[in-house]
Amino acid sequence: MIFYASLYSQTGTTFWVATPYTTPSHDGNHSIHIVVSSMASPSTVTLSIPSNKSFTPVTINLPANSTDYFDFNSTMLNLVECSEWDQITNKGILIESSDVITAYLEVFSTFNTDIIALKARNALGTDFYTPFQTTWANHDFSCTATNPGCVQAYSHIEIIATEDNTTVWITPTTDVFKSPTGTHPAGIPYSVILNKGQTYAVRSTSIAANGRPAGTHITSDKPISVNSSDDSMEISGAFDTDADQLIPVNVYGSQYIAMRGYLSDEYVYGVATENNTKFSINGISRSKTYNKGDTLIIKLTSNSTLIQSDNKQKFTLLHVSGNSNETGAAILPPTDQCSGSLQVGFNFGHAETGSYLYLNLMVRAGAESNFLIDGAAASWLTPASFSTIAGTSWSVARFSLTNVELTEGNHIISNTKDIFHLGYINYTGPGSLYGYFSDFEKLEVAAIAIKSNTDTAIACTGEPLQLRVDGGVNYSWTGKNVSTNADASMYLNSKTIYNPMVLGTIPQGDYIFTVDVSSACNGPVITRSVRVKVVQSPSPQVKSASVCESEVGSGCASKINLTTNYTNLMTNSWPGAVIQQWQKDGYNEQITLDDFDGTRFVKYGANNATSINIA
Q1: Can you name the residues that pair with 516 across neighbouring β-strands?
Q2: Which of 47, 242, 360, 444 has its CB surrounded by the most CB atoms within 10 Å?
Q3: Residues 360, 351: contact at Cβ < 8 Å?
Q4: Is 415 helix (H, G, I), strand (E, B) or coil?
Q5: 3-class SS at 228?
């Protein structure tokens, strides 16, 4: 049976990822799963490979609070795995959803598994440094010319472009492979040009611990996403894939809290972004100076370790953890800013005897007693479990759970007062899955209508419309009619939740719904608004299609640029059809047509030269 974690935290509607290659000499029957989880609203999720036009996009319809996955089995790995080193390939994955979801990539393997927590907008940038562990080597599979089916495991970097004509500059810190048989020398920049969805993989030339391209600097002129991955990294005879999606420099912090897992020896690996950087460990400054791209190595000797740069220089931090020498890797979230989540869902999937779920919690001090598991207090999650980290605003606790303390299946952990970070390690016996599923970037408050995914929307009478606010702790909604100033709060199904519904009983009119949000981290009350235009619903004999002039949103066919006399210039392009109504305001346009089947076009503009497909 296959189980997946629903991790409501690094939410978004767009995710990009390049898939790391893992050697079939370790597990030739592995698969790649893209696991997606909805939140309080249903979502339609589509997976595409934009640079591979022969790949037909696949869609999953997720009910609210549910999880499903896209499967690339062992016969389909060539579609997505970045197995061609130093070559441009058409293998990048794009995940798009109609409402916010979370997503992660799992190398689904009995012996060589890990998860990559996809970070949505927090993964995209133009300036990256690549952290790697430099303590352990890749397993030596003893590949020789007499064994042509053997494939050696290496460490590597995967890059995916999100726009056409993206130039990527790579400055490796060690010699890396150059196709077909050469090397790109350490310290010498080189570049590649990628189109939307194309991928490029950098591979080390050595399997030695010090042969990894740790601290490699990658920049671009358009947003990209980058992974670091370490295939079949070996500790005392056990070897596993360790991989994660990186964050760009603008999301880095100057302070981190590293919480141990259950390996006998655990380390974190930081990369400096500025010259003359010094670090303090648990408040004690170290004398060594680090320059850009240098790797900081810290052995974790206590359950929690505070790591800071002395002058608030930004750096990134990678943690290798797990249990019984079965490892995974995760980028740690910065703790010097108001970042984190108010709710995180997870699945205790591998809950059989001998499997464990390890949860590492960091919460803002003062909110230790406000945790709930599945909406209720849990006997094992108590305020006494937490200890404060001196010099910070955080408290931490570690929990080791079996199916006695927590039942197998889906669970939600939430905090009713402030934000937290969750480190998740599911030890399966032959492997460990490790990831941080918290929002890395500073928490921002925004209110939207889910239908349009913006702060404006058109709704028809009789149709409910769901609103949502992202960020914050407590919510107070009000509403009014813009024209009459009359109260419209009675048309909300709740005034104190983050995702109220505008009821279908609301009459025609122009409305503003406003929410006062108590922000996290003891911040001020923040006010946000959503403007909703309610128009008369067409009769059963007519259908509607929406066209947005400013941007393409839900239900919109195309961008258009209508002239002021567009009403006279419009025409219908099929016999017997009648344009019944055309409405325009400052943010949306809606056309109502009589009933039709099949594909239809509305033409408009000079000589009816422009058409819109509204099938």
Answers
A1: 476, 527
A2: 242
A3: no
A4: strand
A5: strand
Q: Are strands 216-235 and 238-245 parallel, antiparallel or unpaired?
A: antiparallel
How many CB atoms sit inside 10 A of residue 66's CB?
A: 16
The gap from C-alpha 148 to its chain's centroid, in whole angstroms, comes to 38
Judge contact between 359 and 399, C-beta under 8 A: yes
Confidence (pTM) = 0.82
Using DSSP's 3-state secondary structure scheme, residue 63 falls into coil
Q: Comparing 100 with 394, which gets the higher pLDDT?
A: 394
**What are the angstrom distances between the C-alpha of 226 and each of 135, 272, 425, 442?**
22, 17, 22, 20
DSSP for 11-59, written as a single string: -EEEEEE-BPP--TTT-TT-EEEEEEEE-SS-EEEEEE-TT-TTSPPEE
Q: Decide if 431 contacts 323 (C-beta within 8 A).
A: no
Residue with tokens 């979502």, as numbered in its chain = 43
Q: How far is CA 248 from the centre of its chain?
A: 13
Instruction: In whole angstroms, give the CA distance from residue 197 to residue 91.
Output: 7
* Reported confidence tier of residue 347, pLDDT bands at 50, 70, 90: low
The residue type found at 314 is K
Torsion of CA 297, 303, 309, 312, to 10 degrees: 140
Rounded-to-integer distance, Cα 530 and Cα 517, Å: 14
Residue keyed to tokens 């400054």: 285
Residue 357 has pLDDT above 50, yes or no: yes
Could you count the other beta carbons within 10 Å of the beta carbon of residue 575? 5
